[in-house]
Design brief:
The structure is a homodimer. The first copy, chain A, is α/β, with parallel strands linked by helices. Chain A is built from 10 helices and 5 strands. Chain A has a 5-stranded parallel β-sheet with strand order 2-1-3-4-5, with helices on both faces. In chain A, α4 links the parallel β4 and β5. The interface between A and B is large, with 44 and 44 residues. The structure holds a DNA duplex.
Chain lengths: ~210, ~210
DNA sequence: AGTGTGCTCACCCTTTTTGGGGTATTTTGG
DNA sequence: CCAAAATACCCCAAAAAGGGTGAGCACACT
């Protein structure tokens, strides 16, 4: 028997076995009800308004539109619906792309059943369910590289440069002369082996110096 | 009785009640052993080399050096030690600062005992333990604002501008004329009510348009 | 005492970039 | 078909970028 306040879900997953398994599993919980399950994103989006789910479990690899691209389309129609990606991929690019597009969580398909239901509850209590490795990837993305050829001052300058500031503005902000800023930047270019702002920023971002 | 492979922990927490509670709790687990507990960061750092912990539980509000500032100092000595922040603060700035400085996890002090031990295990299995609200904050930090006055093309241009690229470079990359890039940027400045690259980037970042 | 590194500042030079003004055409979506 | 968006072009002056060279000062390390 369903709770009167049971949350509505939809599932988008092309593998019929997995899809049905999810439906069965989730419908066993009295707090959640699967209102629809789709094998592709296009159909799900077409019906999303009437389904009006609070939660959407989304696979990435789908025939036609990818699950990643489907996220912003769903959020455009129902901004408060939580889209949780459920996939086999633990690839950096996909994870961050999904999160940037608006995913509220990212689970890998080896997630045990109990953990899946628990993840749904986390959504309601203001959380963001992630599989172990995903959480590590996300947290690591904030970490800076502590092995940098640049000095602390150079990092400061590069940081400001990367926010679009001009030499003069950086100088004012650091209470130093514009010529000193130029010196620092010359040294930065030397050390990073680049010859322009854009290259320096790209290299520094890639190496996580900033 | 401790497991032979028991992980070594240190605890840095100024409140003696809480500190002792952590010690007692963690020492009950056969997989973890508290080798030392400190009431301030300075002492912990002084002894970190001989303590050689795999994990460090770190409070933020401490007498003297803050727990945030202690993180990079610890990682400088023992790069592979996981520092987990355990604090009452759920403030955005502190969370992201801690993660940027190298924290492997961020727990709030209301974390139940069982969950704390579970969090330690998550560290070993390649995870990043976070309290519910923290996980949401971290994931939300990736989300873009879908309500933007800018068009898709303008966002593309602004994105490239924010990576330090010049008008010409942006033009080449988008297969359009430099003059067109200028037009887009003029419109961006108009819409964002700014008059320079730096202001535009700052405003766009703050509003999470990019 | 000498060496090296980092931070600071200065002056030279040229080229590129930027921002603001205006105008106009084509493309696209509803 | 209309409006919005994307595209392109003109002119102009100020600012910024980049590259070169040199040099003083402090601090740490040997």
């Amino acid at each position: 028997m369903k709770n009167a306040m049971a949350k509505k879900l939809i599932i988008v997953e092309d593998d019929v076995i997995i899809r049905e398994a999810f439906v069965t599993l989730i419908n066993q919980s009295s707090d959640y009800i699967v209102v629809n399950a789709y094998s592709n994103a296009e159909d799900a989006i077409k019906k999303i308004k009437e389904d009006a789910p609070q939660i959407c479990l989304m696979d990435i690899e789908l025939p036609g539109m990818s699950g990643i691209d489907a996220i912003p389309k769903i959020k455009a129609i129902l901004p408060d619906t939580h889209v949780v990606v459920v996939t086999v991929y633990e690839n950096d690019d996909l994870v961050f792309k999904a999160l940037c597009e608006g995913a509220s969580g990212y689970l890998t398909k080896n997630t045990p059943s109990a953990k899946l239901i628990e993840s749904l509850k986390e959504l309601d209590s203001g959380g963001a369910p992630m599989s172990t490795n995903i959480a590590r990837m996300v947290v690591s993305s904030f970490h800076k590289n502590r092995q940098t050829p640049l000095t602390a001052r150079e990092l400061e300058v590069l940081e400001l440069l990367s926010s679009g500031k001009s030499y003069s503005t950086i100088a004012t902000q650091l209470f130093i002369d514009k010529e000193t800023v130029k010196s620092h930047i010359k040294n930065i270019y030397l050390k990073l082996e680049v010859h322009s702002k854009a290259e320096a920023i790209e290299k520094a971002r890639k190496s996580k110096y900033i």
